[in-house]
Amino acid sequence: MCWASKSRGCGGSGIRACRNVMFQQISSENIRGFYATFLTGLSPFFLLQYPDLETQNPPTPPLSWEAPLTITPERSKRWYVIGSAGVLGGAVLGFLTGNWSFAVTILLVGGAYFLVRNAPPVLHRISIEETGFRLDDAFTSWKDCRDFWLITVAPHTALHIQTKRRFNGEIVIQAGGTDPDAIRTILAQYLPERSNQKEHFTDYLIRIFKL
To answer: With contact defined as beta carbons under 8 Å apart, do 133 and 126 qualify?
Structure first.
């Protein structure tokens, strides 16, 4: 029994005094300590039931870089003169032979090519991860890929990844400033390398004619 009730009797005033003394003995620090201990004891249970509550940093990919998909060649004034003459000659030939659709198409293609000639190359980010690779926001699993190869035409190196897709199955991106040996070492852990692959004939023509 509280000492206040003994000294003042068991009346209402004694009970109120005893209650005030008890509340004074329980400080706010003790209350906060009780709740902290209680919540700490429950935290493992909540993490087991809801593992997403635990903050986790996403794993860093083994290799990642930014580069354009293709290289924009440097074209001289002579190239533009010859190209313009070819477009106009093709359009005239189409009109003379009555092939209007060909004439209009070649003029539209030539005009569009002329308009975008000075557009800066678009950079894309590729990330080599343990389960696949990510090109911008598109993820492809290694189980959906066949092999890879690197084509070097100094001073540029292009990475080719052959996927199992029927259409547009070959992914191409420039190595940029990334060491080709580092790319080869990382990718060889997940895919076989097609070491005897040469430059495609169409890529050769595009590079020679600077298209």
So the answer is: yes
d(CA 25, CA 40): 24
| pLDDT tens, residue by residue, 66-85 | 999 988 888 888 888 888 88
Domain of residue 184 covers: 63-71+123-209
Q: How many helices (H) and strands (E) in the chain?
A: 7, 7
Q: Supply 93's token pair.
A: 């030939």
Whether residue 163 is contained in a domain is answered as yes
Peptide bond into 155 cis (omega under 30): yes
Q: What is the separation, in whole angstroms, between the first and last Cα of the chain?
A: 98
In which residue are the tokens 């259409």 written?
167
**Cα–Cα distance between 109 and 72 in angstroms, integer?**
17
Contact 128, 63 (CB under 8 A): yes
Ranges of H-type helices in the chain: 3-8, 12-25, 28-49, 77-96, 100-115, 180-187, 201-209
Q: Are residues 129 and 161 in the same domain?
A: yes
Q: Is residue 204 part of a domain?
A: yes
Cβ atoms of 179 and 133 within 8 Å: the answer is no
Query: How far apart (Å, rounded) are the C-alpha atoms in residues 80 and 103?
Result: 19
pTM of structure:
0.64
